[in-house]
Amino acid sequence: MFSILDQSYSFARRLPERQHHDLPTAVRRELAVVVGLALEWSFALDTPWAPELVATDASQNFGFGVARRRCSRALARSIGRLSERRGDYVALLPDHAADIQHRTRIGNPHLLNLKQRAFTTILSSRSRFGGHATLLEAHGVRLAMEWLSRSPTKHNTRAVLLIDSKATLGAVCKGRSGARLLKRLVRRIGALSLAAGIRMHCVYIPSEHNPADPPSRGRPIL
User: Fold this and answer.
1) Has residue 18 been placed in a domain?
2) I need a labelling partner for 37 at 20 to 30 A (CA). Which of 43, 153, 206, 208 fits?
3) How far is residue 20's CA from residue 169's CA, in Å, rounded to a whole number?
4) Do residues 64 and 143 touch, judged by C-beta distance below 8 A?
5) Which residue range forms the structural domain that includes residue 36?
6) What is the pTM of this model?
7) Are residues 65 and 167 in the same domain?
């Protein structure tokens, strides 16, 4: 719903506040869309969790990557509950002892008993266009949602998405962005979510742990 509203926000900020203003056509149009979709603004609390973790990534040097790991619904629920919790992030086990990094990171890590190679590449696609890193990351999320939406068994579920761009994660979770191109992508992602009944639970994962990082650079997950 927030991705639909745009001109309405500008209108609500008009000054002086107590002066009468007629609703512009653009604002009426946005409100009409909200009313038209009002029957869809609901969410069942007993919606099941999809039994998998889906990671997305994008790189300016190659393109897009999507990886997934099948898991129990209990694990998906425990990770999904970290969505939108500031400072919480997911970390994976290093594939090799030499890969252990003694890097300090602000926040509360949640270590998964999984390695990157436990994930399977779903998509490794070269980009046909350039753009800002945040915009490309949003395209990666869109591709992941398109993949999820193609399977009827994933409809009307809660899906856990691991994203390593905090700017993209924030825009998708909030449902809107002030950047015009990013806002258009967020709307497409929201439309896919609404059409398939997929509730997204986006969780931050650092780039060095993201299993979708190799596919986004045209490499296999080793």
Assistant:
1) yes
2) 153
3) 38
4) yes
5) 7-40
6) 0.88
7) yes
